[in-house]
Amino acid sequence: MSKRPLAPALIALLVVNACERKPPEPPASSAAAESRNDRVRDLFDSMAKGTYTEALFPKLGWEDIPALLERAASTKVLTNFPCSPDSSQSEEFCSEGMVALWLVEGVRKGGWFASLNALCFGPADAKATWGERSEANHERVRAAYAAWWTRARGLAREQAAALDPLEGTGLHWY
Question: Where are the domains of the chain?
Answer without folding.
Answer: 29-173
